[in-house]
Write a structure and sequence with these properties.
With about 475 residues, this protein is α/β, with parallel strands linked by helices. The protein has two domains: about 160 residues, FAD/NAD(P)-binding domain, CATH 3.50.50; about 270 residues, no CATH class. It is about 35% helix and about 15% strand. The protein starts with 5 loop residues before the first strand and ends in a 9-residue tail after the last helix.
Amino acid sequence: MADLDAIVVGAGPNGLAAAVVLARAGLRVRLFEREPTVGGGARTAELTLPGFRHDVCSAVHPMALASPFFRAFGLAERIRLVVPEISYAHPLDRGRAAIAYRDLARTVDALGRDGTIYRRLVGSLAARPRALAEVSSSTLLRAPSHPLVLAALGLAALEQGGALWGAGFTQDAAPALLTGAFAHANRALPDLAAASAGLVLAAHAHAAGWPVPVGGSQSIVDALAGDFVAHGGEIVVDAAVESLAALPPAKAVLLDVTPKALASMAGETIPGIYARMLGRFRYGNAVAKVDYALDGPVPWTNPELAQAVTLHLGGTRAEIVASERDVKSGRLPASPFVLVSQPSIVDDSRAPQGNQVLWAYTHVPSGSTTDREEAVTAQIERFAPGFRDRILASASSTAMDVERYNPNYVGGDIASGDVSFRQLLARPTLSDPWSTPMKGVYLCGASTAPGPGVHGMAGFNAAKRALAREFGMRDLPGLD
């Protein structure tokens, strides 16, 4: 493709979202990807045994139905998304479990006396999922389009993000259920930013639910890549880009990379003030991951957990707090928080008949080279005695293995940047985080607003900026 209008570097969900928008606007676009296949944080591959298809990074997608970009793109009409009746579950000792059903009333009822607090925290947010998605997908400095939803989220986050977060609870199930959602942010708890992100996740669990793509996360990126190519886009794989100067001429360059990578790629051409701003961007704690091929279902002590695709393991709120504070202090927890997904219970394409795949990660300090398979296995075994006997094969990745797989995961940080309150405001800069002072150069990865997750919004927002500023196009093309 000669005479390019735009270049996108990085074929993760955000880079592909940007490429789709640009190509549908009629531009000549080339997409460069360092790996042999597209996908970034949403690839699916056989990591253990033939026939067992594991999600390499992300597995369950709370924003797949809620994201404004995916709604405009019509993702739910392009691929099959299964929405489980149980959005997520939190096993506790002695066979007990807290369960977030899609039905909020059922969840509240099962939580007993603490159910009313849970309803107060997430009910008004779950009642307006589209407004919540728009609020959580924009920068906090922009005038809110839904001020009442933003206010409700802010008040709930202030309550659950501080020292009084346990006030009012009389039992351990409801606070544990919320804490599992907060722990997705991979920060010491309680924490305002973690509470904000976790409350958004919890609310979506009772709205559209937490969908699972049939065929794996790869289905999402394949749909994006297919649309991009169908509208004239060109994908070049096995093409690592080390320098902006090495790219062919184009009016716009959109980079699905971290601020650290941008500084390296731009070199001395980057303005000093902006370079210092990028240098202040902080990366967070990391993950270590384990994938399992199983000869049958996980033998959960609580049989209802066999129907939960997503589970948060770690015990009570106090136990998870201790675990996350260990990680923040640079220690490996003896009893770690473990996020588990068992997608093959709703998608039989993931494993041979009668078998299952299990996806799990745990939090570790940035840059860790410690294999955490035994710690993860032991935590699963705590709530599912006999789990070890189900394992046919496993594949374990340290935090540094995670970074080697995707350099955007600096030190093993799959959020591509600490999810702190400061970096919710400035991710990586204030007001317009997708634009850079270099003519025609934009950032469109998870290090920009609205942050981590498979939602495409960072790429969508960056593409809108590029279309308006570089091509004078203020009306967006149709995406469905």
